[in-house]
Design goal:
The chain is an alpha+beta fold. It has a single domain, classed as 3-Layer(aba) Sandwich (NADH Oxidase), CATH 3.40.109.10. The protein has a four-stranded antiparallel β-sheet with strand order 1-2-6-5. The protein has a two-stranded antiparallel sheet with strand order 3-4. Helix 2 crosses helix 6 and helix 3 runs antiparallel to helix 7.
């Protein structure tokens, strides 16, 4: 007996090389303008916009198609205040005890510290959780998920692209450890916090570090070498 999943026909429209180049050039121009910001307007974002961005993130490929992610949209001001308090406690320990001198030197151009007002100032947080297993209530067992870290990373990349497409700024914030996020949100035992993403429009007067991205030659290698 075959256990293969049902299949359905699939194809993509074949574009000319020039069409492909034009589309990718436009996409690169758009996404290369994406920046992380730390100062947000408090103006609310329509909830359906954030939900659609999450839905786009959910189109990501995943190990064994387990889709091992949960996205929590947090707009409640009181909860965001509690999250900020917990974040700053962990971040203070990181900046004063956990981070090496080299790490702190690398962070210096970004002018960051343990104070995180953006958690309260942004109109929403999207907190991504990775689902390390799925509970099996009928047996009390656990069904493992696969390539969870990689799957959530891909989904988060699509989420950031979707938010930028809608003109919404985002910050990938990783207070470590992040176990407190699961506790504050009452998440189930099978979930682990992956990323905290404040989202919103940049506040008036927002600036970002004038940084450059690596060139194509620095991130891409051809085999055979020299072949393009």
């Amino acid at each position: 007996m075959s256990n293969n999943a049902p299949h359905t026909p699939y194809s993509l429209p074949r574009q000319s090389p020039e069409e492909m180049r034009q589309r990718l050039d436009a996409m690169y121009g758009h996404l290369s303008a994406r920046r992380s910001v730390r100062t947000f307007s408090s103006d609310p974002i329509p909830l359906d916009i954030l939900e659609r961005a999450v839905q786009i993130a959910g189109t990501a490929p995943s190990g064994a198609h387990k889709q091992p992610w949960s996205f929590c949209i947090v707009t409640d001001p009181e909860l965001r205040t509690r999250i900020r308090v917990a974040v700053e406690e962990e971040e203070l320990r990181s900046y004063t005890e956990r981070m090496s001198d080299r790490w702190l030197q690398d962070l210096a151009p970004l002018a960051t510290d343990h104070i995180k007002p953006f958690i309260e100032e942004a109109p929403a947080l999207i907190i991504v959780f990775r689902r390390v297993y799925e509970p099996e209530p009928e047996t009390g067992g656990r069904h493992p998920n696969y390539y969870v870290q990689e799957s959530c990373g891909i989904a988060t990349g699509l989420l950031l692209a979707a938010l930028h497409e809608a003109g919404i700024a985002a910050l990938t914030h990783t207070p470590s450890p992040m176990n407190f996020l699961g506790s504050l949100l009452g998440r189930p035992e099978n979930e682990r916090a992956f990323l905290n993403i404040p989202v919103g429009w940049p506040a008036n007067g927002t600036t970002v570090p004038n940084l450059s991205r690596k060139s194509l030659d620095e991130i891409c290698t051809h085999y055979p070498k020299g072949d393009k």
